[in-house]
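hey
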């Protein structure tokens, strides 16, 4: 056998073995938790570019600051409080509902239906939910644009956790309590690695979904192809 043929067989075996390991690691999972933004659609859709523009103008208007100061505040709140909204609520006592409505009033024209992903999610055994730091009505719109409506047992936004955001442990406790998610038989898919720390500590399988892999103790798997990963799980 040529060296090239042997290398090809080795790589095929390696792939098959990797798939088997993934399948085993998820064989106990009956509750599936998906983040929304940049997880159930590819970040190249750049919806966050639109949301960030809306956030900046909202902060400018509400706090009477210029664009540079609004952007500085946004990134410091994101870093220190998990989300811009959490910082605005804690430091400025801001009303969350008008904010959520304003920042999610964006065009979804860049999203396309994803039949393969829909089929993979539909095949997952047990309960499936979406849990986003955005709002639930926004999540419904995004799911519809992706052709993923009707596949989930529940759709939860930051409002369902009393406006406490991921990565706070309390936020996960509230949502999982409402949704009936048992961490010991659950998996979480998410693009922001910070939001996998609590699920990992709770005993969940954690999957980081992003173009660039992220290595961390609380990340079990990293993938840039959610459909392909779910195909291995099944
Ligand atoms: Mg996300």
């Amino acid at each position: 056998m040529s060296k090239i043929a042997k290398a090809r067989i080795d790589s095929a075996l390696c792939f098959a073995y990797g798939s088997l390991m993934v399948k085993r690691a998820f064989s106990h999972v009956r509750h599936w938790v998906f983040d929304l933004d940049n997880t159930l659609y590819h970040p190249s859709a750049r919806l966050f570019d639109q949301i960030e523009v809306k956030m900046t103008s909202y902060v400018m208007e509400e706090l009477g600051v210029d664009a540079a100061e609004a952007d500085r505040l946004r990134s410091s709140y994101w870093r220190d409080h998990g989300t811009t909204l959490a910082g605005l609520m804690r430091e400025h006592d801001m009303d969350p509902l008008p904010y959520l409505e304003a920042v999610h009033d964006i065009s979804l024209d860049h999203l396309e239906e994803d039949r393969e992903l829909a089929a993979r999610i539909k095949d997952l055994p047990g309960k499936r939910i979406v849990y986003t730091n955005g709002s639930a009505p926004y999540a419904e719109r995004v799911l519809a644009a992706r052709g993923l409506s009707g596949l989930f047992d529940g759709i939860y936004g930051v409002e369902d956790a009393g406006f406490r955001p991921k990565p706070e442990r309390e936020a996960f406790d509230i949502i999982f309590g409402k949704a009936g998610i048992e961490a010991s038989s659950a998996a979480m898919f998410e693009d922001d690695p910070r939001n996998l720390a609590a699920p990992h500590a709770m005993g969940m399988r954690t999957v980081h979904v992003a173009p660039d892999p992220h290595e961390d103790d609380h990340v079990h798997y990293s993938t840039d192809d959610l459909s392909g990963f779910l195909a291995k799980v099944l």
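The chain has two domains: 23-45+112-233, 47-103. The CA atoms of residues 4 and 32 lie 40 Å apart.
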